[in-house]
Amino acid sequence: MNQMTVRIPFVDLKLQHLPIQTQLQQAINTTLERGDFILGRALSDFEAAFATASGTKFGVGVASGTDAIALGLQACNIGYGDEVILPANTFVATLIGVLRAGAKPILVDCDPQTALIDLEAAAKAITPQTKAIIPVHLYGQMVSPRQLLDFADTYKLLIFEDAAQAHLAERDGYRAGSVGTAAAFSFYPSKNLGAFGDGGMLLTRDADVAQKMVRLRNYGASQKYFHVESGTNSRLDTLQAAVLLEKLPYLPEWNRDRLTIAQQYDDELAPLAASGIMPVQNQSGSGHVYHLYVIKVNESCMSERQQIQDKLTAEGIQTGIHYPIPCHLQPAFTYLGYQQGDFPHSEKLAKEILSLPMYPGLSSSQIKEVTLAIARSVSTTLHPNQSPVSVGSKAA
Ligand SMILES: *Cc1c(COP(=O)(O)O)cnc(C)c1O
């Protein structure tokens, strides 16, 4: 980052922690007093609370969201010789999780409006080896559970949700994490529910999957010093679970705040649609938990995405790109054999998307500043005979 003063950061975690700081410190102190740092009481309490809140049965805390995917797939008995379908348009950890489980990743394109996995493309990718599909509830919007369940039923596939960006998201009457056999969550600090470091969890309604996951995160042990399989060391720290347990009751309120912010962005950016600036579509209404608020700067826009981002940076407004390079074009994975042009919608989105500041506590006037700055960055490149676009103000 340059030295320019940031007036509106991309995320601000202090805003959510300072009002409950005493409570959080108390939770940490209680763990210090108990001394049960590994697999302690706050961990089992948080596992039960998060599973219940998400509408499912079991939670198994692990060291990260990536581990929740890798070990979670193994817990579902998915591995060598199995094909797993996932979107090319996701954070690279989804792909890494599949590879670490030993399965073969089969990437498919996304829907250009929602940026979510395209189930028609997924249907075409099915072979006799296909065992599972990983819908990624990207940006906080769930892939339609109704369509997913139909799809999985038709092709006899296991659903493994990547819900790392979708804590307590809802759609079709389902909560994220309760649609498939199992679901992976991340508690990376800036996720909708974040720890004070790394953390993750597998949710499942299947007792066998949960039991296997409990072993896999703890060296494959079914009881102390008795190892029925080869696992690893990947436990969610009791301290992190204590923090998360304390934060969980605030999550619905924080998610509502994100939705309100998104609605204001939607309203104020609506006049810019004609200039080629549009939000990624929300097709799930109030169940979207807006981990990220993402706009697309399409070809018809007179400013390049880069110009707009640079102008916002110059005005002290931080933005992000999630993600600039789709999984199949990452140098690490060229050996999988994919090429430029394989997933045109994902490739186009990677060039067009821009994530705007989004966090509970972002104020209405800050949102206005962001949208006005975007409008200015578009209108400064207008031709002289075009009038500048006004935004967010009915009077203008
Ligand atoms: C954050 C994230 C992950 C990985 O979680 P970590 O806790 O960072 O390992 C996986 N998938 C998606 C979609 C994510 O956003």
Describe the model.
This protein has 13 helices and 14 strands. The chain has helices at 14-17, 21-34, 41-53, 65-75, 92-100, 119-124, 145-155, 207-216, 238-247, 251-269, 305-314, 344-352, 364-379, and strands at 58-62, 83-87, 104-108, 130-133, 158-162, 170-171, 174-175, 182-186, 200-204, 221-223, 226-227, 277-279, 293-297, 353-356. It folds into two domains: 13-250, Aspartate Aminotransferase, domain 2, CATH 3.40.640.10; 251-379, Aspartate Aminotransferase, domain 1 (Alpha-Beta Complex). The protein is α/β, with parallel strands linked by helices. It has a seven-stranded mixed beta sheet with strand order 1-9-8-5-4-2-3, with helices on both faces. It has a three-stranded antiparallel beta sheet with strand order 12-13-14. The chain is globular and about 70 Å long. Residues 382-386 and 392-396 have low confidence and may be disordered. The structure holds pyridoxal-5'-phosphate. Belongs to the DegT/DnrJ/EryC1 family. Pfam families: DegT_DnrJ_EryC1. It comes from Dendronalium phyllosphericum CENA369.
Any chance you could write out the topology, listing elements then pairs?
Layout: H1 14-17, H2 21-34, H3 41-53, E1 58-62, H4 65-75, E2 83-87, H5 92-100, E3 104-108, H6 119-124, E4 130-133, H7 145-155, E5 158-162, E6 170-171, E7 174-175, E8 182-186, E9 200-204, H8 207-216, E10 221-223, E11 226-227, H9 238-247, H10 251-269, E12 277-279, E13 293-297, H11 305-314, H12 344-352, E14 353-356, H13 364-379
Parallel strand pairs: 2-3, 2-4, 4-5, 5-8
Antiparallel strand pairs: 1-9, 6-7, 8-9, 10-11, 12-13, 13-14
Helix pairs in contact: 2-9, 3-9, 4-5, 4-8, 10-13, 11-13
The structure holds pyridoxal-5'-phosphate.
Residues 64-66, 90-91, 93-94, 136, 162, 164-165, 186, 188, 198, 200 line the site of pyridoxal-5'-phosphate (PLP).
